Amino acid sequence: MKSTTYLILAIGALIYINRRKAKNLYLDLTQGEDMQITENFSWREFQGRTGLMPNDVSTRTLQMVGAMAGTLEIIRAYVGVPISITSGMRTAQSAAQMAAEGANPSATSDHFYDLNPASPLSVGAVDIQSSKLDTKALFNAILKLKYEGRIKTGQILLETANGGTSYWVHLANDPRLFLTPEQLAKRSSNSINLIAVSMDNGKSFTPVPSGQFIKA
User: Which CATH architecture group holds 5-207?
Assistant: First the structure.
């Protein structure tokens, strides 16, 4: 279905990607998990526990990964420190494994990257942290970039599962890049644009008012 090289950073990715970081838009899918999508993000980081390789997924999934990698490059350049993806792509099987381990993966999560037929409105998401920057500060930095129009995103969530001793940021692609008007109508505005904090691993959320930040 795919040739040795494939233009995966098309459409949404080209909206976001910092051209100085995208030295070669045609990437070798046969490199597997070692495939470098952008200067600082590889397929391995997005792959997670799915075990999927670039040649295993659809063009649509590749475009979602490319768009997210481009957004992450802009965020990384802004904060000036490395960013780690702690959770990337999920399948129904890997989500079930997470649930069995006590996590709370959503059945309609954007983490599915179009990999779960039961969740056709997923558009790609990652959970991220930085060992060099407080996660609340990272969350606020992403909000600033969004408010200034320097990135276009879907949901931006600050989450924790253990009462606040360890946080991560959930960041989703802008659904308008990948969903038809009919599909967008099936997702509420809140589902698309939610900016919020969850202290219970995504079971409940406290919205952050538009244009505002949280106390770091």
Answer: 2-Layer Sandwich (3.30)
